[in-house]
Amino acid sequence: MAISALAAITSIFALAGFVKGAIGLGLPTVAMGLLALVMTPAQAAALLVAPSFLTNVWQALGPELAPLARRLWPMLAGISAGTWAGGGFISADGTQASAALGAVLALYGVLGLSSIEFRVPVGLEPWLSPLVGLATGLVTAATGVYMIPSVPYLQAIGLEKDRLVQALGLSFTVSTLALAATLVRDGALRVPVAGASLGVLAPALAGMVLGQWLRASVRPQTFRLIFFAGALLLGAYLVLRALV
Predict the structure, then answer these.
(1) 45-56: string of b/e by CB count within 10 Å (b at 16+)?
(2) Which of 64, 85, 174, 235 can bridge 106 by disulfide, Cβ–Cβ 3.0-4.6 Å?
(3) 163-202 burial string, b = 16+ CB within 10 Å, else e?
């Protein structure tokens, strides 16, 4: 790999980790979006496995893990099933996968910038949760990004701040494992790629630590505004690039 490409990939993962540390999410969104400018979505998703898994486990650990797992297991099971069922799309056609990734990023940016707030009554969770998980799994399999619709759903079920961050980490951990299993099955995640994925772990973790430090000194609303606006613009660019 050329030194310039290695430097670019290292910088992307440091930035992605920084965003995740600052607002509790965004590592795959930033990394997949920027890496898609220089490689196929399947290659980017394979590189993301190690840093996504370890940073998400870090975020998921805590005293509320068991209660959250009991509450969210239908969604987590749906994520696993949907990702496995949708496997192959991300590596089958790089152009279509890039366009799908761009569309998801743009939608995510629009939702983040809007003031729309969803609320899900507790009584709807038993049947809505697996459907949200299944849809998230299919989107994950197609794009490598597992934010839609799981993040809006988790924000809508009334979790307080710390439990929400932990629930996001749990959901992302399951999504990462399901995507990794699918990539292995489809031949996109081999030993050399796994080694490269471990290699980008250090900049991702360093960026995450820096982002956590920044979270205590900068208004989260300002940072989130920049993040979602960037996701919208990057997503629109990826869609246009794939269509033109």
Answers:
(1) bbbbbbbbbbbb
(2) 235
(3) bbbbbbbbbbbbbbbbbbebbeebebbeeebbebbebbbe
Supply 130's token pair.
């697996």
Confidence of residue 220 (pLDDT cuts 50, 70, 90): low
Question: Would you tell me how many other CB atoms lie within 10 Å of the CB of residue 16?
Answer: 30
Mean of all residue pLDDT scores within the chain? 83
pLDDT band at 227 (very low <50, low <70, confident <90, very high): confident
Decide: 138 and 88 in contact? Cβ < 8 Å: no
- Show the DSSP H helices in the chain as ranges: 3-23, 27-35, 41-60, 65-85, 89-92, 94-113, 125-143, 150-156, 161-185, 191-199, 201-215, 220-243
Q: Among all chains, which residue has been given the structure tokens 């697996």? A: 130
